[in-house]
Write a structure and sequence with these properties.
The chain is 37% helix and 23% strand. The chain is of the alpha/beta class. It has a five-stranded mixed β-sheet, sandwiched between helices. A five-stranded mixed β-sheet has the order 8-7-6-9-10, with helices on both faces.
């Protein structure tokens, strides 16, 4: 079994692969206060929960946007298996042509997503990740990573507005009103957050289509997709395991044959 770990700002996504098949997908909180031993216990419990504890771990590949978490997770997996651990970063083969000025500053989760998109999606393609930030990763017609866009995530923007405007109430983002004319302050905030985020994504995708000269394939990933996707006017496909599949593909590219 190949274990894939995507360390994000709020949670660690975990995938177990047997070849191209996903055996399970799980997650645990990102917490720099936990030790490698604690994370090892968490991982062992997850493997047991999904009845995968008897599967020998033949390899581990991880990406991280939280550098301090890398040695903690590396130590954690060392308790479970003595198998090699591949950490996505400089020197790792991805097969991806980078047309950006500072490729090393690109989040490794986005690299993994782009690797899978260049392999499996019709090109050109834009991967939109709706997580802590909203990122647009653009692949051109040749599958090269041509550029990107980063905007505040919906929850980050909502929290920032709450801190800056004392009179605005705390709002739980749920199903917004059907009308975009808010009758209450809470309705207005929900509309602005959900419809506004969807409109921003639609508008940005339209501008990227102009830049590319054609409408791209759009892939969605990230925790906020279920909230935003119903209100998009642009055709898009939700690929919840995009990064984990990309990590598995990077692992395959770095194995000696």
């Amino acid at each position: 079994m190949l274990l894939t770990l995507d360390i994000g700002n709020s949670h660690v996504s975990i995938g177990g692969f047997c070849g191209d098949d996903i055996l399970f997908v799980a997650s645990m909180a990102t917490d720099g206060r936990q030790t490698g031993e604690q994370y090892a216990c968490n991982l062992r419990s997850i493997l047991s929960l999904y009845r995968a504890e008897t599967q020998p771990i033949e390899g581990v590949v991880l990406s991280s946007v939280v550098p301090a978490m890398i040695p903690i997770l590396q130590r954690a997996v060392s308790f479970l298996s003595g198998c090699p651990v591949l950490t996505v970063g400089a020197g790792v083969k991805t097969g991806l042509n980078m047309k950006v000025d500072q490729p090393r500053t690109l989040g490794t989760d986005r690299v993994a997503a782009a690797v899978w998109a260049s392999h499996a999606a019709s090109l050109p393609c834009v991967v939109v990740d709706l997580g802590t930030a909203i990122t647009f990763t653009v692949l051109d017609a040749e599958g090269a990573l041509a550029g990107s866009v980063i905007a505040p995530g919906i929850h980050i923007a909502l929290r920032a507005m709450g801190h800056a405007a004392a009179q605005l109430p705390e709002v739980r983002l749920d199903i917004p009103p059907k009308s975009v004319l808010g009758r209450t302050t809470i309705d207005a905030i929900q509309i602005g957050s959900v419809y506004g985020t969807a409109a921003m994504i639609d508008g940005m995708l339209a501008r990227l289509a102009d830049e590319l000269g054609t409408a791209p394939t759009v892939l969605l990933s990230g925790s906020a997709v279920p909230l935003i996707k119903p209100y998009l006017r642009t055709s898009a496909r939700w690929e919840p395991q995009l990064v984990l599949r990309g990590l598995a593909l990077i692992w395959q590219k770095n194995q000696r044959h």
